[in-house]
Amino acid sequence: MKLNQIRMVLFGSFLLVIALFGFRLQIEPFEPYDQKIPNTDLSFSMVPIPAGAFIMGTPSEQKGHQVDEAPQRKIQLDAFWMGTHEVTWDLFELFLDKNLEIGISTKPLSHQVDGLSRPSTPYLDMTFGMGKASKPAVGMTQYGAIQYCRWLYLKTGIFYRLPTEAEWEYAARAGSNESYFFGSDANLINDYAIYIENSNKTTSTIGSKAPNPWGLYDMLGNVMEWTGDFYAAYEDDSNQNINPKVVSEQLYPQVLRGGHYESEAEDLRVGRRFASDPVWKQLDPQIPKSRWWFPEAPFVGMRVVRPLKVPSESEIHAYFDRVPPADF
Amino acid sequence: MNQRRKFIKTSALIAGSTLLNPYVLPKAFATGDDVIKIALIGCGGRGTGAVFQAFDTGYNIKLVAMADVFRDRLDGSFAPIFQKYGKDKVDVPEDRKFIGFDAYKEAMKEADVVILTTPPGFRPDHFAEAIRQNKQVFMEKPVAVDAVGIRKVLQASKEAKEKKLNVVVGLQRRYQDNYKETIGRIQDGAIGDIVSGQVYWNDGGVWVNQRTADMTEMEYQLRNWYYFNWLCGDHILEQHVHNIDVMNWVKGSYPVKAEGTGGRFTRTGKEYGEIFDHHSVTYTFEDGSVILGECRHFSGAHNRVDESFQGTKGRAYMNAGNRGQLWDAKGNSLFEHDGKGNRNPFQTEHDELFKAISSGEYKFHDTDYAAKSTLTAIMGRAATYSGKVVSWDDCMASELNLMPDKLGWSELPKSLPNEEGFYPIAVPGKSKMI
Predict the structure, then answer these.
(1) Are residues B31 and B169 part of one domain?
(2) pTM of the shown model
(3) Co-location of B168 and B235 in the same domain
(4) Chains A and B: how many Cβ contacts under 8 Å?
(5) ipTM given for this complex
(6) Closest residue by Cα to residue B136 from B281, B55, B27, B41
(7) Whether B360 and B390 share a structural domain
(8) Segments making up each domain of chain A, as ranges
(9) Residue A100 and residue B347: Cβ atoms within 8 Å?
């Protein structure tokens, strides 16, 4: 009798584990998917980026090579999904404005989403006259970009974050060792990127050019994209060549990648590194300066990734809770 | 050698002007080693930013007094200033931190130059007092919220000119290279006479401060000042005055009448006080040219903050992101400003003001155009609130005074909430707002 009960409990537990595991498998095959924003008709798409190794950085003989792109070294990365597109204003504005989010949601906001710390309303027009619908959100700080990921996490229960610099370059290269993911012929850029020669000095709607071989649009050009990394010299250290990440308490400089709508061809190279600059906030007339906005960086945007291996709850909180120093 | 000669020349000029002028310049800084003492009146984010910019001019400046109605705002401003510039530059002991509605008078006495960055409703009284006390001034826009205030500012402006007191107003587009370059060419006739234009400040709106149980009505309105006309004047003044000022600058004159439409459509909660969330105003100038001024606080809608003009020979476009471009009538580009590495206009305002002050020069009298551009915005508000055509002359002569009869924590502003906390809102066709 007692034994039977134990057996039943064990069997029940077994079924439960199978059910949960099956459920997990069902919703998380490592395939492309659309992430819906609950209770709205908005979504964004993600594609799987397989685990693998690549050579990060560029050789000195590459046209346009900069010293900070060396030394080249072999990097090993775990698998992750990456946003097919740069984050649009359509999505970012829901995070920016709670009233707007409430306005287009079919259900009340959860307690956590309701209480979330959101960007200060910018005094200036942060679209810089370039428009909103299907256009990349621009001008956010790295902190603002990370807090957008927190909002997504609270909305969806799925941990999204900024790519590390290595993840970004790996995904952008999509297997290429050359200047661009399509080779080294700068004449082909017009097929793949919004840049100085075809942008008319404004951002374009996302996905207006062909994607890279891994299905990522606008990796080069349109807007520069935030990484989560601090801008530091590359070091070929075998201890740091697996899932490298550089974190600092300093506010500047942080790494952005990919060039933008006013970049020249050489600045669109997959290995090209950009560093955030306090001058992007000089037009903020207030003190302390906003921790959310760069009024002189209309070329800065973002794209999210989702690691296949989900970090622990405490790691997730540590990632979102990091508050940057006040900016004067 | 050159510098030496310039120094002597400057000193001679000052001596000369002192002899000729019944008023003595408050202080001459021609030697360059005298400290320029500044006082901050209105310790919000913008005031704090202005003090940073004053220090960043590199002149020998010392902050000696601060004033605000709220102790917490003053402390919140003092902390970052002190942290960044230290005790050599920031000499504001407890007895020079002035709190209250009259604090500005005391703080000004300590300084040579005053920075006026309270909500705009207080500006006329503060500016008049600063000039009465012979202070040089940096003040933020708009410079008043009603015509009574504008007349006070214009009167004080006259006095400032007689006393040769420099006044810079924070309409920073006047100090921004793309605007100066582009408008300079327009005024030289590059696109003929300006016959029409469209100037916009359409975006998602600004901050809100919520009422708490312990606040008196006066404190609440001060804390949430953006939404009350006696303090802010409505966003058609507080923000759109920038674009309206560009319109007047380009035209080289002021409109003779305004008509328009406006209301509250998306921003209807009680925390938004009494201001509209959109205004669209047609301004007509003496020469018959017509310019549209539109401002809108709709979150989620398309943003547009810029200025366009059409002339008899071409057209122009400008925005605060360092853009400035001219085309001929066929659309061929005549001029495009290179915005790369342009100076920060907020810094330029202070660089130029303190350069003039430190060399004893009298150079800046921004008050008149700032007051008249503010009045242009007031005229637009009068048009959208009343639904009537409003002339410049009637607007300038208006006796509407939005300021409370008395200022004090238990005094009442003129606009008060009903039992549910909602404020009276202007109704076009019914309301009188002139």
Answers:
(1) yes
(2) 0.87
(3) no
(4) 80
(5) 0.80
(6) B27
(7) no
(8) 33-321
(9) no
User: Does residue A97 sit at the B interface (CB-CB below 8 Å)?
Assistant: yes
Q: Kindly state whether A5 is in contact with chain B, defined as any CB-CB distance less than 8 angstroms.
A: no
Paired with B260 in beta bridges are B281
Tell whether B182 and B44 lie within a shared domain: no
Query: Do the domain assignments include residue B415?
Result: no
Whether B159 maps to a domain, the answer reads yes
Task: Name the residue among B80, B206, B319 with its Cβ closest to that of A328.
Answer: B80
| Candidates B168, B206, B299, B342, partner chain A, best to mutate (most A CBs within 10 A) | B299
Q: How many residues does chain B have?
A: 434
Please list every residue in chain B whose beta carbon sits closer than 8 Å to the beta carbon of residue A328: 52, 80, 83-84
- pLDDT tens for chain A, 328 residues long, are 455 555 555 555 554 444 444 444 445 799 999 999 999 999 999 999 999 999 999 999 999 999 999 999 999 999 999 999 999 999 999 999 898 899 889 999 999 999 898 988 888 889 998 999 999 999 999 999 999 999 999 999 999 999 999 999 999 999 999 999 999 999 999 999 999 999 999 999 999 999 999 999 999 999 999 999 999 999 888 778 999 999 998 999 999 999 999 999 999 999 999 999 999 998 888 888 999 999 999 999 999 999 999 999 999 999 999 988 888 8
What's the confidence (pLDDT) of residue B68?
Answer: 98
Could you tell me which residues come within 8 angstroms of residue A54 by beta carbon, excluding any fewer than 6 positions away?
A74, A75, A77, A169, A170, A173, A175
For residues B37 and B112, state if they share a domain.
yes
| A93 neighbourhood in chain B, CB within 8 Å | 299-300
CB contact under 8 A, A287 and B51: yes
Find the domain containing B276 and state its range. Answer: 176-339+373-397
Answer yes or no: do B38 and B119 share one domain: yes
Cβ <8 Å between A287 and B304:
no
Instruction: Give the mutation candidate from B139, B176, B243, B303 for the A interface (greatest A CB count, under 10 A).
Output: B303
CATH number of A33-321: 3.90.1580.10
- Whether omega before A288 lies within 30 degrees of 0, making that bond cis, reads yes
Q: What is the CATH number of the domain that holds B305?
A: 3.30.360.10
Using CA coordinates, name the residue in chain A closest to B140: A285
Tokens representing B154 are 């214009």
Question: Is pLDDT at B381 greater than 70 in this prediction?
Answer: yes
Are A125 and B303 within 8 A, CB to CB?
yes
Query: Are A288 and B80 inside 8 Å of each other by CB?
Result: yes
Are residues B96 and B193 located together in one domain of the fold? Answer: no
